[in-house]
UniProtKB/TrEMBL annotation:
Name this protein carries in UniProt: Uncharacterized protein
Segments forming domain Disease resistance protein winged helix: 426-497
Residue ranges occupied by any Disease resistance R13L4/SHOC-2-like LRR domain in the UniProt entry: 548-875
The Disease resistance N-terminal domain, residue ranges: 7-102
GO terms for biological process, alphabetical: defense response to bacterium; innate immune response-activating signaling pathway; plant-type hypersensitive response
Homology family: Belongs to the disease resistance NB-LRR family.
Natural source organism: Oryza nivara (Indian wild rice)
Keywords assigned by UniProt, alphabetized: Coiled coil, Leucine-rich repeat, Nucleotide-binding, Plant defense, Repeat
NB-ARC domain ranges (all copies): 178-341
Ranges in coiled-coil conformation: 17-61
Keyword Nucleotide-binding: yes
Pfam families: LRR_14, NB-ARC, Rx_N, WHD_DRP
GO function terms (MF aspect): ADP binding
InterPro entries named among the record's database cross-references: Apaf_helical, Disease_R_plants, LRR_dom_sf, LRR_R13L4/SHOC2-like, NB-ARC, P-loop_NTPase, Rx_N, WH-like_DNA-bd_sf
Length: 886
């Protein structure tokens, strides 16, 4: 259960805090039971872990008894109580430590009272846990702890029914591809995988191909694997179908080796087709794969929701299904809804509404067929359809068949991924998640913690990859390393996550109108787009997370109201809001780990920010803030500081963005991993030399005289992976001779400004160039054959961006240019002499996107562009006024 996992994590983090240890040492003689508190809390942790293991065994999707539901609710309440007490414990221990360190005469009587209350609450929790255990033994019988095996079968039968052959649309291309793979010339085993999120019609597509082609094979078999499988049972199923044994035949006297030997003998020198449907992990196939070794030709088709299972096939034999295009989706909806009319045609007066309904299903065949079936049973009257459309969101999430299919994916998630998944539902529909922001949020919430040699951020990055591999999040764009740089959640998946989040009391996502109706005990609240009401005072004493994107009012009254009552707030995300100031009271939120003010209109941060001793991330990018608070360096746990702002919203000039003045005592912030962007200064190099954990560093306002010391310091950063260097102005020439990175992680380099002569011969390009995957250059002079020189030094680039580059009339990409480049961006403004771009055969063999913008003298499409077979996107903008496309 999500609440239990977080409670256990909270206990683990609080027990190791120095402040809590110090509090016990100071007050243990005055407070009864305080010395035993860590032991008691650790026992509570163990009890909660055991309870969580019991809950895992229960069928939480369809509990067989209301008593089971009641017990789960009771355990959830206990877990929330534990979190509250741990936060209270941590808060007062910190206050005690601060008073002691400031040499104040702390009020011992006050703290004796507080910690006595905490000790008493721990005793009460112990009793409640004991009672919960007794209730389970008394009322929960063993059958209640066993998932109903019929549930899965019923869902599968209904899924097959929903996507019957008559309702298969838009599959012609995929069917042709699968058929070609079946009859390819390869001998021996060939694995073919069909992957994608639940409800896309993987089983229906493969079944269509299987039924059409199976009789062309000597033997064939279809086996449903599912989440709960047994390798021996799979072999028995396979043998029954090959030999034709009745289903009742147990074959119990045969062990795995015997079963495999019989299968091998039966399939020897024969052509065999097998479908393994609904495979959830790789082992399901690897346990039985050697049974096919004797086949002359075997084709194994695997359907799966997991991308790591899909890698069982070679890349050339993997098919990843995508949602239907709108036209196909509309055709499917009409077939299901208007099945009894001629050609299944939609009435003209309902067309607009029908298109809106289809859009809401986002191309998911399962949803389209389910909703189509619902609308097929009502009169073709506009007012009836309008009323039903208003309720469509509830219908989609409450539809038993849709929920059952999507629930399978959710229930297969391990606990740590469930929290991350549910968290994404707090953001609006179609919200584009930045990889970095999502990782920072998960770390702040405590979902990802340090594991052995991995930082919390690295752990969170793995969690993100897992959710993507499980098709719970969709990748929108990849970065230069092939990682997801942005992703989104399918609307139907989000609806499911929201309903579970509400049921689990994980969090609520509401508009402003229902915000005043929220329960006081809400722990995570997303209220995006709300307008302030100065007469309204809201109290959420247990609130941990507030997400309010695009808030419409600049007033801070409601925000102040919430912050004043939410003492344990952990995350404050106000991205894209109209807010203009942050309340001074924010400094009282000791538990605050994340502040997101990106693209707000905030002009200053209160000095009280320096009191946020647990703050991990401060994101004030693209705000109106010009200076950091004087005491920001006191926030010693700060890991990510993102603080540049736009000076020119049009981004046309050289200094369109500027960094912040580096805070005094920056060197004290030893936990910093991200520092974007600070201005160069005389002592910046010395300050940075003490920040050994920095991974991403952006520096602007660099002069020629800064280069030697600053670049030498940057070169010594062992973990540096991303570096931006910007000169004081477009005429300042920077010398890169001392930039000799020791880091093997540096893969992204952005340079803005003129270069000193022979720069391309310096170590950063001559020796480190092969490690770079991303290079962005702007406002510099490179001379003739610049692309040839760059490609010879930077053979592993996957992304290249050139902007305002001077010094050449002809750009030439030779036959071996940039073999790994996928995205080449040219924004070459103010280059009146460039009139030709030549692409030789063999250049850019894997290029996917080419942007050619603002080359006013370029009159024709680049010569040789037709050789770029992998090109998917081509932009040709603001070129010669007589530009010709042929």
């Amino acid at each position: 259960m999500e609440a239990v996992i977080l409670a256990v994590s909270k206990i683990g983090s609080v027990l190791v805090e120095e402040a809590t240890k110090a509090a016990i040492a100071k007050l243990s003689e005055k407070v009864a039971n305080l010395k035993e508190l860590p032991t008691k809390v650790d026992e509570i942790k163990k009890e909660l872990e055991t309870m969580n293991n019991v809950i895992k065994k229960m069928s939480t999707t369809h509990p067989t008894d209301e008593v089971v539901k009641g017990w789960i609710v009771e355990v959830r309440g206990l877990a929330h109580h534990v979190q509250d007490v741990m936060d209270k414990y941590s808060y007062h221990a910190l206050m005690l430590e601060e008073e002691s360190s400031m040499k104040k005469v702390f009020t011992k009587k006050k703290y004796v009272t507080v910690f006595s209350e905490i000790a008493e609450e721990i005793i009460q929790i112990e009793k409640k846990i004991e009672n919960a255990g007794k209730r389970k033994e008394r009322w929960l019988q063993q059958p209640d702890l066993i998932p109903n095996p019929l549930t899965y079968i019923e869902r599968k039968q209904f899924q097959d029914c929903l996507l019957a052959q008559d309702y298969l649309v838009g599959i012609e291309g995929n069917r042709k591809l699968l058929t070609e793979w079946l009859y390819s010339s390869e001998q021996g085993n060939t694995v073919i995988t069909v992957s994608g999120m639940g409800g896309l019609g993987k089983t229906a597509l493969v079944n269509n191909v299987y039924e059409r082609e199976k009789n062309n094979f000597d033997a064939f078999s279809w086996i449903v694997v599912s989440q709960t499988y047994n390798g021996v049972d799979l072999l028995r199923k396979l043998l029954r179908k090959i030999i034709g044994y009745p289903e009742q035949t147990t074959l119990s006297d045969l062990d795995p080796r015997d079963l495999k030997n019989i299968i091998k003998e039966r399939l020897k020198d024969r052509k065999f087709l097998v479908v393994l449907d609904d495979v959830w992990n790789r082992e399901a196939y690897t346990l039985i794969e050697d049974a096919f070794l004797s086949c002359q030709t075997s084709r194994i088709i695997i359907t799966t929701r997991q991308d790591d299972v899909a890698t069982l096939a070679y890349p050339t034999h993997r098919l990843k299904l995508k949602p239907l295009e709108h036209n196909d989706a509309f055709d499917l909806f009409c077939k299901k809804t208007f099945y009894n009319s001629m050609h299944s045609k939609c009435p003209q007066d309902l067309e607009k509404l029908a298109h809106n309904i289809v859009d809401r299903c986002e191309g998911l065949p399962l949803a389209i067929v389910s909703i189509g079936g619902l609308f097929s049973s009502v009169k073709l009257e506009s007012y009836i359809w309008n009323e039903m459309y208003k309720q469509l969101g509830d219908e989609l999430v409450n539809n038993d068949h849709i929920r059952a299919i999507l629930n399978l994916s959710y229930r297969d998630l391990p606990g740590h991924l469930r929290n991350c998944f549910l968290y994404c539902s707090l953001f609006p529909e179609d919200h584009l998640f930045s990889r970095d922001t999502l990782i920072w949020l998960w770390v702040a919430e405590g979902f990802a913690v340090r594991k052995q040699h991995s930082t919390p951020e690295e752990v969170a990055d793995r969690y993100l990859r897992e959710l993507i591999q499980r098709n719970m999040l969709d990748v929108v764009e990849n970065d230069e390393l092939g990682r997801a740089s942005s992703c989104k959640m399918h609307d139907l998946v989000r609806d499911l996550a929201l309903s579970i989040a509400k049921e689990e009391k994980f969090g609520f996502s509401n508009d402003y109108g229902t915000m005043i109706e929220m329960e006081r005990d809400v722990r995570r609240l997303s209220s995006c787009g709300w307008e302030n009401n100065d007469a309204l005072k809201l109290k959420f004493p247990r609130l941990r997370t507030l997400v309010s994107l695009r808030a419409m009012s600049p007033s801070t009254y409601m925000l102040s109201s919430i912050l004043s009552e939410s003492n344990y707030l952990t995350v404050l995300e106000l991205q894209d809001s109209e807010i203009t100031e942050v309340p001074e009271s924010i400094g009282n939120l000791f538990n605050l780990r994340y502040i997101g003010l990106r693209r707000t209109k905030v002009k200053t941060l209160p000095q009280s920010v320096e009191k946020l001793s647990n703050l991990h991330t401060l994101d004030i990018k693209s705000t109106k803030i010009e200076k950091l608070p004087k005491g920001i360096a006191k926030v010693k746990k700060l890991r990510h500081l993102i603080a540049d702002r736009y000076a020119d919203e049009t981004q046309s000039g050289f200094q369109y963005f500027v960094g912040m003045q580096a805070p005094k005592n920056l060197s004290n912030m030893e936990e910093l991993q991200t520092l974007e962007t600070v201005q160069a200064s005389k002592d910046l190099a010395e300050q940075l030399s003490k920040l050994l954990k920095l991974r991403s560093v952006w520096i602007d306002n660099i002069s020629y005289t800064d280069c030697a010391r600053l670049f030498a310091t940057l070169s010594n950063m062992q973990l540096l992976s991303s570096l931006l260097i910007s000169a004081t102005n477009e005429n300042e020439a920077l010398c890169f001779e001392e930039l000799r990175p020791k880091s093997k992680e540096l893969h992204k380099l952005i340079i803005r400004g003129q270069w000193a002569k022979q720069t391309l011969d310096y170590p950063i390009f001559r020796y480190h160039g092969t490690q770079l995957n991303y290079l962005a250059l702007s406002w510099c002079y490179l001379g003739e054959d610049m692309l040839g020189i760059l490609s010879s030094r930077l053979e592993n680039l996957t992304c290249l961006r050139l902007n305002n580059i001077h010094g050449t009339k002809t750009l030439v990409l030779d036959a071996k240019a940039f073999p790994r480049l996928k995205m080449l961006t040219m924004v070459l403004k103010h280059m009146p002499d460039v009139n030709q771009l030549v692409v030789a055969g063999g250049a850019l063999p894997v290029i996917e996107g080419l942007y050619i913008v603002s080359l006013p003298e370029l009159e024709r499409v680049p010569q040789g562009i037709e050789t770029l077979r992998s090109l998917k996107k081509l932009w040709l903008l603001n070129l010669h006024k007589y530009f010709k496309s042929h």
